[in-house]
Request: fold
Amino acid sequence: MNTQVQEALEQLKNTGVRITPQRHAILTFLLDSMTHPTADDIYRALAPQYPSMSVATIYNNLKMFVEAGLVRELTYGDNSSRFDADLSSHYHAICQKCGKIVDFNYPALYEVERAAAEQTGFAVSGHRMEIYGVCPTCAEKK
Ligand code: ZN
Ligand code: MN
Reply:
């Protein structure tokens, strides 16, 4: 078990959440995958090992992880939320053909928050940016 999973499980235990084998599996899958899966994606990946687990169970567990601050929920206007266990500050590039989401960093953008705070007097808590385009794999398929 990697230390990230261990830490996340510790954190859950401290909030009084029981660690079931399913919860363990969902969390491990999320931490191991950098693909920003939907509840459905996780369901399809785990169904062979956990046939009794439903999409609803997975979704409820994901919501619980989000509330516990272990996972970030990403909404992009469609009705299937995606989940990201990488809590570091980063942005996402989204492929308009296959829906793939890829992480990237651009620290200079924090200047935007400072400028917004200065010009509006707001206590700025964050900002959101997505980049849209076609991923290299899809571009090659043409
Ligand atoms: Zn693509
Ligand atoms: Mn991400």
